[in-house]
Known about the structure:
The complex is a heterodimer of chains A (527) and B (349). Chain A is α+β, with helices and mostly antiparallel strands and 527 residues long.
Amino acid sequence: MMTLKKTLLASVIGAVVAGTTLLPMTASAETLRIGYSADPETLDLHEQLSGGVLRFSHMAFDPLVRWTKDFEFEPRLATEWEQVDETTMRMTLREGVTFHSGNEFTAKDVVWTIERLKESPDYRAIFEPVSSAEAVDDYTVEIVTAEPYPLLLNLATYIFPMDSEFYSGETDEGSDKAEIVKAGNSFASRNVSGTGPFMVTDRRQGVRVDFERFEDYWDTESEGNVSNIVLTPIAENASRVAALLSGGVDFIDAVPPNDLDRVREADGVNLVEVDGTRIIGFQMNEERVEAFQDARVRQAVDLAINQEGIADRLMRGFANPAGQFSPEGYSGHNPDLTPRYDIERAKELMAEAGYEEGFSVEMIAPNNRYVNDAQIAQAVANMLAQINIDVDLRTMPLAQYWPEYDTRQSDMAMIGWHADTEDTANFFQYLSFCFDEETGAGQYNYGGYCNEEIDALVTEADSETDLEKRNEMLREAEAMLYEDVGYITLHWQNLAYAAAEGVEIEPVVNALDFPYLGDLVINRSDD
Amino acid sequence: MIAFLIKRLMHAILVMFVISVLAFAIQDNLGDPVQQMVGQSVPESEREEIRERFGLNDPFLVQYVRFAKNAVQGDFGYSYFYREPALEVIARHLPATLELVFAATLIIVLFSVPIGVYSAIKPRSPISRLFMGISIIGISIPVFLTAIVLIQIFAIGVTVTLFPESTGWGAWLNDFFSTEGNMPSFGRGYDLVNVVGNWDTNLATWNGLQHLVLPAVSLASIMLPLFIRLIRAEMMEVLQSEYVKYARAKGISMRRVYFVHALKNTMLPVITVGGVQIGTMVAYTILTETVFQWPGMGLMFLDAINRADIPLIVTYLMIVGVIFVVTNTIVDLIYGMVNPTVKLTGKPA
């Protein structure tokens, strides 16, 4: 009967539509219509560190260096770099690059940008190791760190030089053009001049952003042929997929796992999956549950959880089961550490620790942050019941989850983490370091887990500039945490993009979730 | 009349006051807006600074008084996400929602009156029964589902292979039930015509109208069955009344009896219910606009909730409160015109 109603409506609408020929919906061949789950919150790169703004940064700006698919550094505005001494790196900049405003790009813009990053509330902490930057000449810049710091190139992927002339001076209202105002109406949040492949031509926040290819873009070797971009944020998963399938957009991000098969099988649409680097897992609150202070109980919890099963069935293969923080490709990835589901051993450990009878815990998880988050938490709760841990699960939307998380008033909490530096040490520093309010270490260490040995090793690694040696230390740290179970790893959540036939997204998407659209090629067959 | 309007104005102010207090009271449960404004790795000290700057650490009463003081002067605060005055943000999103509600209302009126009247005049005919059956189902299908199904059929397209393709009739039926899609499934399209100020209209171009069809139909699908049943019931009651019998006996043509004499009296309660329901429809736009990514107030509100954009949430709720008061007032005015025996200055029934 339901379809009957639709059929009636169908005939009504059909009659209306059939009467007139449809206007052609497709625009010129090089226009790319994007349906992303979010649009950039602001046009000021330093106002907010978010996926939306970083994606935008790669469209309207260029970083000094950027990551390749295999986590190598690719020169962009910096063409060469060398370590002059333990704390100084000298970078040679690309010549003949102009900003959208027409100003020429030189070393002073890099210095200006780094100084601005150090003022930004969102980037200040990340750029803490950098003490100063200096222009040696127009195309050479020296970046100095306070201590020997091995991750300077990782940081350089966040340095998108801004047009210092354009962003200097005062607006008509008398405010500084360079100021960073959080959720305010600053000059930089509305005006853009970068070196990137696309210029912003129009923007209606939350509705659409229009881009046009920058005619004087320096990278003339890029095969990218997209001349215009219309970016529409479509937050609702089903609507985003429908927009692609109906031909309303050419490219979408974050295809939901439930729609993967549908998109894979649809005609005229290609699905591209990328192994992600965001770790999803649980933390145990040792301050509230005495049992969690016992390493054997933590191990038992880890052993009772079937990571493979969750990745396979619940995530439908849309995740890689994890036994450590670092995904493959990361410096500290230790290939020996795999998930170790063993329910019998888990029961033994519980008995050894004197908790054969089990205990009850409260668990919290978000329900709209990670892929299938609430279902994963439910599955984990059921698995823990097997070793007599009785879980009382509460799930809540993102906006309420983090304030709740910050109170640390539950016994287990779900958290996913992506390392801003694309480096192993970052996971430890935020998720497992002994909590210290002063230094901000262990800011997301929910349960008060503390292993000073691991902390010392990671801290030492972070000032080791011999990368081989450093990687070995981080792999060791992963192994120690694996043994001690300071964090329960579940999986790295994948990324899925989909695009219309002829829109060659495969070469330009990456695990970082920042598609390099400047290099995107569209081959539409003429029909 | 003037006394009536002044009274309604007082109502509106009271409603806004109550809503603003309630909205402020629940804001702590909406989440932490600062969480949405910073990257995950931003240290707590930075967050605290931002909270302090936005005055989020002040006690409830202090925050409310500060808000009320500004609100009286027409300043409802800055949206955290849009970085603009909340009132401006809403004003920009309002036309899209009003056009959607207007289009849905048009569909409802165009279909409910003839169908309702027909099924009242011929209650036993198979067509009437069919309409009644469908309307029961229509009421019970959530708008979200209707919207998804409409998108599948008209935007993405369906290929039916239910009937044997080899037979002539099978192929014909398959073809008949299959759809090509091609209708736009999201947004307002890129072919809007600016009318005045920030009012861009979908109604002036073919492309704009195409974008409007699916959202308007799904929004109308909730109310349409209700109105059909309402009109039918009222009409049947009116047809039993003495004056209709008298008109018949007098030999006036049946068409005139149905559509002039009976219909007029049928519409009285329909107007009352209709006005209120149009207000309710503003609430339903939240779902419809979300599915169709229609950039109106509903979508904006849902996003605001997800982002804990408190100034925008509070302002939206107050504005919707006013819309309710205004539609009710207009309904009362129209009612007064249609039925002069109702005195507006008197106590509302």
